[in-house]
Amino acid sequence: MLIVMRKDATGAQVDGVLEVVSKLGFKGHAMPGAQRVAIGITGNKGPISADHFRYLDGVTDAIPVSKPFKLVSREVKQEDTVIQVGGVTIGGGTFAVMAGPCAVESREQLLEVARAVKEAGASILRGGAYKPRTSPYSFQGLRDKGLEYLAEARAETGLPVVTEVKDVETLPMVAAYADILQIGARNMQNFSLLEAVGQVPKPVLLKRGLSSTVEEWLMAAEYLASGGNYQIILCERGIRTFETVTRNTLDLGILPVLRELTHLPVIVDPSHATGRWAAVTPLARASVAVGADGLMVEVHPDPARALSDGPQSLKPSKFKTLMQGVRSVAGAVGMRLA
Ligand code: PEP
Ligand code: MN
To answer: pLDDT at residue 269 above 90?
Structure first.
């Protein structure tokens, strides 16, 4: 259910509606828009009658939401959600590039990459400290030490940092350091993690699951929003198909569809999508052209020696070329670079 307030509705009238919603045992989510406030209702097990709300002070309409995802849907909020983090804007016409190593491997490695991606024009630093690895024998990340190095790199470069939160246990530690909490593809349907991150007042980067449909992905985002965290960035990172020549199949076709279905910003990760560094720059350009709000790209000073994802990592000089291409395409489609 979506309650649409009149354009001239007062704050007291919005509060009055929220009170009625909570007395009925539901949760109300006030969503201010450019024209008016809308209130999304969650927590109902079945349909609720619009008549509970339609005649309240300041209300112009109460309409059922047809999609299974509610708060993240375009039906509930027409305006694009724009995320602000550490002075960087993501969405609403501003294109943000997140770049850095797959994993933080050492202080020197991270600082070297951080300086290089900043100089090339990236606006956010990525780096995994807690790594979800397919094999228990692979490098699992520097964990807390990795978070400290990320904080040091942020202090030096001014770049906000995005890093993965792997489980509920380490969430408080990761949330103490990260500017954006990354939920990885393997955890997209870890509902306990989604519920816990839904309570944290920090932006979340929600990667698409390896074999997830758009609806499953948006339902995962709905978990975050229903918990009260609306600062969600979606990240398309390729899905598993019959094709094995690339690590995954980059599904750029969903970008225009997501625009219709959701108000959330969407970024693309061409590194994990292809697993091949030579494919990353062309697909980064394509992502801008198709309407993405940003990119996540893996960069390593010495990909041949990387402890994870070397084959898909760009050397800093190649990343510079990527940024030049992204800048030209952004200009052609009327996007600003963050
Ligand atoms: C990553 O960003 O390093 C990562 C593990 O990505 P994904 O969850 O998309 O596989
Ligand atoms: Mn990686």
So the answer is: yes
Of 128, 112, 239, residue with least CA distance to 180: 128
Cβ(139)–Cβ(308) under 8 Å? yes
Could you report the per-residue pLDDT of 116-130, keeping only the tens digit for each? 999 999 999 999 999
Phi, psi of 84 (to 5 degrees): -115, 125
Report the C-alpha gap between 157 and 110 in whole angstroms.
11
Dump the DSSP string for 46-73: S---THHHHTSTTEEEEE---SS--TTB
Residue 77, ligand 1, Cβ within 6 A: no
pTM of the predicted model, to two decimals?
0.96
Question: CB–CB of 39/88 below 8 Å?
Answer: no
Instruction: Read off the pLDDT of each residue in 156-165 and give the average, rounded to a whole number.
Output: 98
- For the stretch 179-221, pLDDT in tens is 999 999 999 999 999 999 999 999 999 999 999 999 999 999 9
CATH code of the region 2-63: 3.30.70.1140
Say if domain 83-337 classifies as CATH 3.20.20.70.
yes
Output the CA 88–ligand 2 centroid distance in Å: 23
| Residue spans per domain, the chain | 2-63, 83-337
Report pLDDT for 35: 86
- Per-residue CA distances from 13 to 18, 55, 59, 297, 335 (Å): 9, 12, 8, 46, 38
Q: Amino acid identity, residue 226?
A: S
Q: What is the DSSP letter of 263?
A: -
Helices 214-226 and 254-261 pack at an angle, to 10 degrees, of 40
CA distance 261 to 319: 32
Question: Which atom of ligand 1 lies closest to the CA of 237?
Answer: 9
Nearest atom in ligand 1 to the alpha carbon of residue 238 is 9
